[in-house]
Amino acid sequence: MNILLVASLDTKDDSDKYRKILISDEEIFNLPNYYTDNIEYTSETLVDENEWYKLSSFSERPYCLNILRSPILSIDFTAFKQQDLGKIEYIFSVFGDIFCFQRITPAKQIKQKMIVFGDILEIENKQSFKPFSKLFNSHVLTIKNLPDAIYHKSNDTLYFRNLNDITKIFVGIDVLFREATETEVINFLGKNFIRLSAGFSSNNVKVQNRRRISAALEILSGLSAMEIKYLSNYIRNYCPNIPFDNGQFIISSESNLKELLYGIEERYYTTTIGEERRLANSYIKR
User: Alpha-carbon distance 61 to 190, whole Å?
Assistant: First the structure.
């Protein structure tokens, strides 16, 4: 099978950060059925248990790794050495045009005393990769069953399940769920249809609502005054818990703010048959 396993190290020199760990004839990661069960990533969409997000035309994105844009040969990599232990940021396997990535945290680089029997450099149980304990009798590197991300070079697509898991691998990818800046939060809270009360200010706005504000500002920027008025009526209809006075929503808590932001995204709806009011936890644009 000849699967190449490579480690990316935390080094000052990016030109010398990759190390070849081994070439294996056994499967390192299990590959899910991500080809058919995938959804183009948006921050508004939550994937189901067996679904994966995807990012198409990945090589054209600024946070794509340069190494994915070039041919890869095992002879191009320096061999992993003992002094590299503890410096691993992430690992990836390469088989054909498929790259599987896993972030490596300090908890997955375990130092312990042990006696290991068997051949040097092998995959054990496809769950726990222990070449370091065999080479240096001191370290264990744990590999998960499923990778954090899969890149398929032939269709130039990255597949993943959780954006947080891969932000340390693809630096800059967190722009996809970026938080609003302090200036943007203040700008949003200063909109003429919002009034703050009970001492509520930008200092009270936490991460999740800052991300929602970033999306809300983008939506509002494309609306006319008439559409914003319609949106205000829609929010009043679905969010009676938000006090409303003289054309303004009165925001005094994070909860009020979250309801307002969901309203701007038009996440509230009424079912056709049962006329039941609901909130969409996520949605897909069609």
Answer: 34
What does the alpha-carbon distance between residue 180 and residue 176 come to, in Å, rounded to a whole number? Answer: 12
For 110, other C-beta atoms within 10 Å of its C-beta total 16
Whether residue 109 contacts residue 131, with contact meaning beta carbons closer than 8 Å, is answered with: no
Contact 140, 125 (CB under 8 A): no
Question: Alpha-carbon distance 274 to 240, whole Å?
Answer: 21
One-letter amino acid at 74 equals S
Contact, 270 vs 31, CB < 8 A?
no
Q: What is the pLDDT along the chain (286 residues), one digit of tens a residue?
A: 689 999 999 887 777 899 999 998 888 898 887 767 889 988 778 788 788 999 999 999 999 999 999 888 888 898 988 788 888 999 999 999 999 999 988 666 655 554 455 555 455 554 444 544 444 445 667 888 899 999 999 999 999 998 889 999 999 998 887 889 999 999 999 999 999 999 999 999 998 899 899 989 989 998 999 999 999 999 999 999 999 999 999 999 999 999 999 999 999 999 999 999 999 887 766 6
Q: How many other CB atoms are found less than 10 A from the CB of residue 265?
A: 15
Cβ(54)–Cβ(61) below 8 Å: no
Interatomic CA distance for residues 101 and 67, integer angstroms: 13
**Residue 57 CA: distances (Å) to CA of 94, 152, 156, 157:** 19, 11, 5, 6
> What letter does residue 177 receive in the DSSP assignment?
G
